[in-house]
Amino acid sequence: MLKIIFLLLMSGGIPVAIAMAGSSLIYIWTTGNLPSFVVIHRMVSGIDSFPLLAVPFFILAGNLMNNAGITNRIYNYALALVGWMKGGLGHVNVVGSVVFAGMSGTAIADAAGLGTIEIKAMTEHGYSKEFAVGVTAASATLGPIIPPSLPFVIYGMMANVSVGALFLAGILPGLLMALMMMLTVAYFAHKNGWGADVKFEWPRVIKALAETLVVAGWPLILWLLIVKAGFPAQITVFAGLIVLFAADKFFKFQAVLPIMTPVLLIGGMTTGIFTPTEGAIAACLWAMVLGFAWYRTLNWKMFVKVSLDTVETTATVLFIVAAASIFGWMLTATGVTAAISEWVLGFTKEPWVFLLLANLLMLFVGCFLEPTAAITILVPILMPIVQQLGIDPVHFGLVMVLNLMIGLLHPPMGMVLFVLARVAKLSVERTTMAILPWLVPLLGSLAIITYFPKLVLWLPKMFY
């Protein structure tokens, strides 16, 4: 009965959060087994969680980076690094999204922020608007895969899984996805006879490579000094930051400091300096230092606007989580999750078959529900089966999030689809057709990530 009420409310066009809370309340009223205040109690307790404090701070950090002129720096860095290749701006689009993913944590922020610059630049250089939209949509899915990631925080809280382990698990799959997309760009460039978009110049390329080496080498040097040489951690990190800022000032780097956001975040969590929640606060402080003090592209008027946008987005996300808490509890209490588990395990006990069916389900659900709502509904249903089949919950979390990100590219509810249709001024139908070829690298990446869990779990097992 609970499921029927929920589906009726959803089919009537009622928002998913209200449908979840409303169906639970109606079910309690009709059965009379529980007092009505249980709904409020479960909703409040559902968001009374320390890990969920990371949600508003990650949203704020992404908004600050997006409004501090960081996107232009990322674009220029990617242009210098790979713009000289055939189909250059397509590669720039992918590399830029990899970098921006380390700050935004959401696909929609990537599509709306960096995507606006990339689509404009690609159309001005003679690329078709459809190709520009397609590669931008595909690369936007990297946002929640490469840490930090808002969906990983929600999944970690719902499934009782380490958020730090989830962040580490997303690094190698994110790079795999980027490689698959760049191969697709190379295919289209070869097929259409596209050349480079900027002239190959050694000084530009060497400077971009130097920035990449600084980002990769800085944490390695600190690790050697702290772990191997025994230097005090706090003093060493502080001195390392001073050297980093001095190098940025002297060499006039484009994007070293913004790219350092995920490095500082992951490094702080794996070394135990701070928890994921405290890491979200650190990311906000880092964004404010860059925006207010270093680049001086933020002012207090912009900060107030960014804060209000963050409050609005946070309220929406947490209301969905609160509504899903009572709905998930009711599904468990009424035996729905147990019945689904028994049915699935009666059908198959092979993990690979379950993963195939789960992928199909999550791809379908992702077309109709936004990721936060889908995660909060699916985790209580699927997690008991995952545990019984011995599938690692960290691995399954990455599979779930990637499925739901692909769902964002499709009608009828794909938010990235609608954002890019508005940015590019294309119809939804033309935008959908532009995205279709890019499902090949995305679904290929999904298949590899689903059936080669070692790729996902190698880094988490090293540190956790």
Automatic annotation (TrEMBL):
<keyword id="KW-1133">Transmembrane helix</keyword>
<feature type="transmembrane region" description="Helical">
    <location>
        <begin position="131"/>
        <end position="154"/>
    </location>
</feature>
<keyword id="KW-0472">Membrane</keyword>
<feature type="transmembrane region" description="Helical">
    <location>
        <begin position="263"/>
        <end position="295"/>
    </location>
</feature>
<protein>
    <submittedName>
        <fullName>ABC transporter permease</fullName>
    </submittedName>
</protein>
<dbReference type="GO" id="GO:0005886">
    <property type="term" value="C:plasma membrane"/>
</dbReference>
<dbReference type="InterPro" id="IPR010656">
    <property type="entry name" value="DctM"/>
</dbReference>
<feature type="transmembrane region" description="Helical">
    <location>
        <begin position="98"/>
        <end position="119"/>
    </location>
</feature>
<feature type="transmembrane region" description="Helical">
    <location>
        <begin position="394"/>
        <end position="421"/>
    </location>
</feature>
<keyword id="KW-0813">Transport</keyword>
<dbReference type="Pfam" id="PF06808">
    <property type="entry name" value="DctM"/>
</dbReference>
<dbReference type="InterPro" id="IPR004681">
    <property type="entry name" value="TRAP_DctM"/>
</dbReference>
<keyword id="KW-0812">Transmembrane</keyword>
<feature type="domain" description="TRAP C4-dicarboxylate transport system permease DctM subunit">
    <location>
        <begin position="4"/>
        <end position="455"/>
    </location>
</feature>
<feature type="transmembrane region" description="Helical">
    <location>
        <begin position="43"/>
        <end position="62"/>
    </location>
</feature>
<feature type="transmembrane region" description="Helical">
    <location>
        <begin position="233"/>
        <end position="251"/>
    </location>
</feature>
<dbReference type="GO" id="GO:0022857">
    <property type="term" value="F:transmembrane transporter activity"/>
</dbReference>
<feature type="transmembrane region" description="Helical">
    <location>
        <begin position="166"/>
        <end position="188"/>
    </location>
</feature>
<comment type="function">
    <text>Part of the tripartite ATP-independent periplasmic (TRAP) transport system.</text>
</comment>
<feature type="transmembrane region" description="Helical">
    <location>
        <begin position="433"/>
        <end position="452"/>
    </location>
</feature>
<feature type="transmembrane region" description="Helical">
    <location>
        <begin position="352"/>
        <end position="382"/>
    </location>
</feature>
<keyword id="KW-1003">Cell membrane</keyword>
<keyword id="KW-0997">Cell inner membrane</keyword>
<feature type="transmembrane region" description="Helical">
    <location>
        <begin position="315"/>
        <end position="340"/>
    </location>
</feature>
